Amino acid sequence: MSAYLRSVSAVVGASVLILGCASDPTRGYTLASPYEASVVSISVPIFENQTFDPGIERLLTEAIIKEIQYSTPWVVVQQGGDTTLSGMIVASDHGRLSRRRGTGLSEEALREVTVDFTWSDNRTGRVLATRRSFRVSRSYVPVRDVGEGLAVGELNAAQELARAIVQEMRAPW
Description:
With 173 residues, the chain is an alpha/beta fold. 30% of the residues lie in helices and 32% in strands. It folds into two domains: 1-32; 35-168, Rossmann fold, CATH 3.40.50.10610. It is built from three helices and six strands. It is flat and about 70 Å long. The chain starts with a helix and ends in a 5-residue tail after the last helix.
């Protein structure tokens, strides 16, 4: 195949891809950012905690801030942001998924955290996203000597919940 035919094929292929994309993400594939373009900064106050697990609110808030900083174009500020993401931890549960034969000790455990959150625009007062009973669960291995501690289970659940919340903050498809 000659260089001319290859370049023509590349131009035609790129044109078909670009023409097949929509400017509105609700109408098809798009090259536009999935994040709200008018938002520059977000304030994330510490989530409220209605559970008996102290400290999980700080762990979750820190995980959300890191997720926003590393996976979105937005900047996290302490106060006065374009938008505010606020929330409340409404449930925090531990469960046993499997137990060791003979001893009855947990081999695999589950950490489940449920939150309510609201993302609102401080400039207009409009609610951009809100979710109730938003739940994430993560498993961990609490077995002695080779297992993970409860703190690792809490950290894994907080990080997974942070990823899920930030995904919910994307522009609606």
